[in-house]
Amino acid sequence: MEPKILPSLQSGSSLAVSAKKRKRRNADQLMSIVFILPSILAIGVFVYGFIAWSGYVSLTNWNSLVPDLSFAGFKNYLFLFKDFRFQADLRNTLFFTVFFIIAVLVMGLMLAVFLDQKIRGEGLFRNIFFFPMALSFVVTGVIWQWLLNPATGVNLYLKKLGLDSLWYTSVKIIPGVEWGKIQFGVPVAVIAVVIAAAWQMTGFSVAMYLAGLRAIPEEIREAARMDGASELQIYRKIIFPIVAPITVSVIIIMAHISLKIFDLIYAMTGPGANFVTDVPGVYMFETTFRGNYYANGAAISIIMLVTVAVFIVPYLISSRKGES
């Protein structure tokens, strides 16, 4: 007969095992905290700490090389919203964001559908479409500055056709309705920046849409074809609704990029004549580091942060709810 193990010994051994597991788990948690603590401290100081400092400086009178941290309230913000240049920046950012997002979405979806047809040489086309993403906005700005130069670039062909070759440097606003201190409308010169930005970032939307299209089972398309649906109806009523969440993601990411754009504008056009291509990022840089108006520059940066947060925070909240 096999010897019977007393219940007290069984419970004691199980308690010892659970205690060892608990101790190992606590040690793992402690090591995890130790590893991520430097990152948490760095983010807390160099991200959220500097955001808080910028917010504090924006409420002071520090608009010279000599620090003046006396409280000024919202004086700097009121000055900006009455300022001609900042009003022009808001107008330019609005139209740049709208046209940039539309261009990236339309071209990205069209190219993704083109690649989804499993064409010959798909790998080559992918590399061509994705290559601009490997460049920085500074490089893109310099390249398109050369291409759109009224004296040497592709505008020479427009001149030969009798068209306006100076649109790249135009100060024209369409339709140019008076609004505050500025003319409200589409600055013609902004279109050039939209072309350059869309050229670089379309590859991102192509990758997103192509991944979504390739994730759709072929059986769904075959079933729709058997029911008599045309290819146009399949895309319009089945495929496009399925990839709608990807469209939302692309819009959020592109809006985040366009609202804080700086390097492309600075390298390609600068503020432009009459500030027709100026944006808050360029204004903040010149105000802070060239004009030494630190409180005004901090106020511009906080306004940029708020505008980006308006797009990002609701998206993160909805994504978190979707995951839970």
UniProtKB/TrEMBL annotation:
<feature type="transmembrane region" description="Helical">
    <location>
        <begin position="188"/>
        <end position="217"/>
    </location>
</feature>
<protein>
    <submittedName>
        <fullName>Sugar ABC transporter permease</fullName>
    </submittedName>
</protein>
<feature type="transmembrane region" description="Helical">
    <location>
        <begin position="127"/>
        <end position="147"/>
    </location>
</feature>
<keyword id="KW-0813">Transport</keyword>
<feature type="transmembrane region" description="Helical">
    <location>
        <begin position="238"/>
        <end position="259"/>
    </location>
</feature>
<dbReference type="InterPro" id="IPR000515">
    <property type="entry name" value="MetI-like"/>
</dbReference>
<keyword id="KW-1003">Cell membrane</keyword>
<feature type="transmembrane region" description="Helical">
    <location>
        <begin position="94"/>
        <end position="115"/>
    </location>
</feature>
<feature type="transmembrane region" description="Helical">
    <location>
        <begin position="30"/>
        <end position="53"/>
    </location>
</feature>
<dbReference type="Pfam" id="PF00528">
    <property type="entry name" value="BPD_transp_1"/>
</dbReference>
<feature type="transmembrane region" description="Helical">
    <location>
        <begin position="293"/>
        <end position="317"/>
    </location>
</feature>
<keyword id="KW-0812">Transmembrane</keyword>
<dbReference type="InterPro" id="IPR035906">
    <property type="entry name" value="MetI-like_sf"/>
</dbReference>
<comment type="similarity">
    <text>Belongs to the binding-protein-dependent transport system permease family.</text>
</comment>
<feature type="domain" description="ABC transmembrane type-1">
    <location>
        <begin position="90"/>
        <end position="317"/>
    </location>
</feature>
<dbReference type="InterPro" id="IPR051393">
    <property type="entry name" value="ABC_transporter_permease"/>
</dbReference>
<keyword id="KW-1133">Transmembrane helix</keyword>
<keyword id="KW-0472">Membrane</keyword>
